[in-house]
Amino acid sequence: MSELLHRFAERAGDYRADVRLCSQAELPGVLSGLLGKEVVLPQGVPPEWVAGLATIVDDGLSPADLDRPQLSVLTGCAVAIAQTGTLVLDGGPGQGRRLLTLVPDHHVCVVFAHQIVADVPDMFTALPDPTRPLTMISGPSATSDIELNRVEGVHGPRRLDIVCVIDK
Questions:
Q1: Backbone dihedral angles phi then psi of residue 122, each to the nearest 5 degrees
Q2: Stated pTM of the model
Q3: pLDDT digits over 86-101, tens only?
Q4: What is the CATH number of domain 3-141+154-165?
Q5: Listed residue (139, 155, 166, 164) closest to 85, CA to CA
Q6: Tens digits of per-residue pLDDT, 59-71?
Q7: I want to staple 76 with a disulfide (CB 3.0 to 4.6 A). Which of 38, 65, 94, 130 is the partner?
């Protein structure tokens, strides 16, 4: 496993994301085991990722449509940052609009090893279009009250699963 992939998985895990590693061939099976009964997809998710699963392609679903307990959303990402364990989405194909990753209770994101960069400056270099609006995700949604009691899922997904695909 590459050093960047190892560091990314470790840092994302520090933020309480569940990180799994797999090969391209194993990806559909891993996703099938993670996704719930209802799966929302943005435009551009490769069909082979979800072969055999019941899916709903986002065509402008409302926040109420996306705020259901059994709902999962599956996306890809533009880049991932090893130093911070951060996913970076720019709304490109397979990533969808921000609402998809901020409302559902469960987000599953696929990251390919070649998408992982060392740090934030490298992220800007790796982005296809650095002027696009970015959503940066470091673990499940979390906040703390004045006594530093951590609460997850208040402002976004309570569960974040990251599937890292090891490049050949």
A1: -65, -30
A2: 0.90
A3: 999 999 999 999 999 8
A4: 3.40.50.10420
A5: 139
A6: 999 999 998 888 9
A7: 94
